[in-house]
Amino acid sequence: MSWKWIILVLWLLYAVAFIFLLRRPPPRGRRSSRVSLGERALRLLIIGATGGTGRQLVRQALEAGHQVTAVARRPAKLNFSDPKLQVAPGDVLDLRSLEAVMPGHDAVLCALGHKQFFWPTKILSEGTANIIQAMQSANVPRLICESSLGVGSTSGQVGLIGNLFVYPLILPFYSWDKLRQEKIIEESDLDWVIIRPAKLTDGAARGQYRHGPEVGGYFMPVSIARADVAAFMLEQLRNDRYLGSAVGICY
Length: 251
Ligand SMILES: NC(=O)c1ccc[n+]([C@@H]2O[C@H](COP(=O)([O-])OP(=O)(O)OC[C@H]3O[C@@H](n4cnc5c(N)ncnc54)[C@H](OP(=O)(O)O)[C@@H]3O)[C@@H](O)[C@H]2O)c1
Prior knowledge:
Elements: H1 3-21, E1 43-47, H2 52-63, E2 67-72, E3 85-89, H3 95-101, E4 107-110, H4 123-137, E5 142-146, H5 159-170, H6 172-186, E6 191-197, E7 199-201, E8 210-212, E9 223-225, H7 226-235, E10 245-250
Parallel strand pairs: 1-2, 1-4, 2-3, 4-5, 5-6, 6-10, 7-9
Antiparallel strand pairs: 8-10
Helix pairs in contact: 1-5, 2-7, 3-4, 4-6, 5-6
NADP nicotinamide-adenine-dinucleotide phosphate binds next to helix 2, helix 4 and strand 7.
């Protein structure tokens, strides 16, 4: 067998092994929230507000009439103003900055992400542990957190290119940290929902998409617009259907 074939076979074995390494049983889910948020306008704290999904969350939350605190490492980056919007400086790796801004909110929407793909990081897991600690200290009951399709019980459901290239070659460290992030959320006593989107696009919201623990597929690529992800995340503030579980979303 030539070297080319040996490398190809090893790479395929690694890609398949990686799918199994990222696989976890689905969280059990919960029937009802500990704290009901009712029908009033909410006070929402948005993490990752300067990012792609975060900006959609801020805009749509304001349009829905909520009060929004957008947490940003560099507040000027948001370049957006609204009477119901407060922009607060904060870094998820700095617990005190979160504790300073957390009191008085009804829920946290987290669209945290970064681009440090090629070496081990704990930004997502440590950052989320800090968010949860700050929420618990301030009695903020509900966390809606954006993760990724292809993690945990949806490992492998990201299409062939995702399975052979993106996850094993570009995102192994990142996905590993996402797995830890999800575990930390699952172990918390908050009312939480983990949202696992397919490949994100900046397209317009379609308003129609598939969601559930089993969406995605092993071969065909799947995607979803950040605008639709944000709308779905906001829906989870009052909808208990996926409470205590991780839900995939894609077209
Ligand atoms: N891209 C995809 O195809 C895809 C697919 C599925 C899931 N996802 C996941 O979806 C999530 C959102 O992705 P996105 O592309 O919409 O977001 P994004 O544009 O990458 O934005 C990430 C946000 O996180 C913030 N952030 C990073 N480190 C921080 C820190 N230490 N403290 C506070 N904020 C920090 C960034 O702030 P700065 O502006 O200061 O950097 C930014 O606002 C990510 O978790 C991503 O992995 C992505």
